[in-house]
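During the first year of the project, the team set up a workflow for recording each protein of interest as an amino acid sequence followed immediately by a discrete structure-token representation. This format lets reviewers and collaborators read both layers of information side by side without switching files. As required by the reporting guidelines, we include two representative entries from the current panel. The first entry is reproduced here exactly as it appears in our internal archive.
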Amino acid sequence: MLLTTRRQQARRRREGPDALTGRKTTGRTTRERMVLHAEVAVLGAGAAGLSLAHHLARPGPRARRLSTVLVEAPPGPLRPPRRTWCFWEAGAGRYDDALTAEWQRLRVHAPTGRPTENDIAPLRYKMLRSDDFERHVARTLDDSGHVRRLQAAVETVSSDSHGARIRARADDGRPVTVTARWVFDSRPLACLPPARTTLLQHFRGWFVRTDRPVFDPGTAVLMDFRVPQPPRGLAFGYLLPTDPHRALVEYTQFSDAVLPRQAYEQALRHYTDDVLRLGGFDITATETGVIPMTDARFARRAAPSVFRIGAAGGATRPSTGYTFSAVQRQTRAISVALHAGRHPLPPPAHSARSRAMDAVLLRALDSGRVDGAAFFARLFAQVPMERLLRFLDGETHLYEDLSVGVRTPVLPMLRSAAELPWLRRTPRHEP
């Protein structure tokens, strides 16, 4: 007993006065229940959960350290699959050490094949794979001394105005209870909130290694519309070269339903063989994803002390499916509020103006009034690419938004905007 006490005291001295406290109590089951106490609990270790934990692990020089528990699902179906995140930002970023690649030139191919290529300086388009991101964040958490990682499957979350209680089960089957003043839940929603329009961005990608040097590693292809278009929505290829022989090649659709796996394989084979003409290549890895593009209203507060962050909190941009940049803005703001002792309600991931414009675009695409491939190709051809990327990130001024708007099909967009107030918001049962 004395030895255990000394070990606990030594650990607490190393971790500092705000260290996590924990104790074990005997529950009604045959296993001991682990009980942890912290000021902040983060549920889920995808982009949002890891980003918030990373921000909390690196407070400013005068900020108080906050004891934090990051609850991540054990290996299995609850853990997020490996994925690739792409985003643009100006200059150096906090995750540059973990990047797979970055590009300053982007290209878009119209359905006719005509390319539009531009330098996006001062922005850079960055590619970050989830495994590299997790390793990068893990090093920061290990060095912090006040953030603990716990592998457990969350079962219930209850809350009142004084805090929250999380009941979970560790990967060894032991019950776990975590109590915290604030909880930030990044786990995927069981179903989407009611919406007037919901499309799905669904894709499959191949990481390929070609026999001959066919890629230009200095230019990424953001959208390539030289693929067959669906009756409604749009489809495009996506090409991220990392060297002359290696690239991520994806086939993506915006539509109301996913495809059978074989359909993605056929589309990718057509794109790599008939459009890109890669010749011989090996597939070294694959990835698949489905991203909801919706004008639903996402609740950022689930209970008095429980908040939703990331895609579950509305961080996905409805018009594009991009999420990572909004997650960084949202989690950075939460961290600043917590370290300043303010109420940490997550801010809206996107402005009201951006969400309103996205709702109009989604309705125009879903109704078939706008040819999606021609729409995006025209925007990239007529608007400076750097400005368009800032527009898609919600970083433009009103006059810049108007300069983009006049280059869209005005009458179909106005008709879509006029009918939105009369449309009912209906639930969609798929996650």
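The second entry, processed by the same pipeline in the following quarter, appears below.
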Amino acid sequence: MKANEIKKGAAIEVDGQTILVKQLQVQSPSSRSGSTLYKVRGQNVVSRQKFERSFKGDEAVNSVDLIRRPVQLLYKDGDGVTFMDSESYEQYILSEDSIEEELKYIAEGLEGMLALITDEVILGIELPTTVVLEITECAPGMKGASASARTKPATLSTGLVVQVPEYLEVGEVIKVNTDSADYISRA
């Protein structure tokens, strides 16, 4: 596969290491003769070390076959975070460090999560595009607040902080984009 075909959530092999792609940034050339660069940020699935490298669009990259299985959160404890396969009831344990970013969006009963598995080993969790979370802390809502672009920070039930319109209040349930951590709408 070529570097311009890499997608977020894919697994690639670089220098004998399997890398789970967590972010992808496309940098257009600044001159006519330049080539588009694909900046890949991810994590080594064995050592859990962060990985970052830029590839030219036509550069060859080895892809790793991933199996995606529907899972749900069972519990968190000292060993890590335990997920259960929604169909086979098999359990997978991941360390909190390895899914630190994803945990900000995972609340009890979240539907639509997928476990990324290769060679019987769980690599990570793929979140749905949007999640619904409750506001647990924010400044009081303003009665005369217009629907203008004025926002305030709000802490959600998972600890994630997002900017929300100033008319929202504690206890309201909102929809959040998991790629950008942006407020979308009331749920």
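For the second entry, the following points were noted during internal review. The first helix runs from residue 100 to 103. The first strand starts at residue 11 and ends at 14. Both points are flagged for discussion at the upcoming steering committee meeting.
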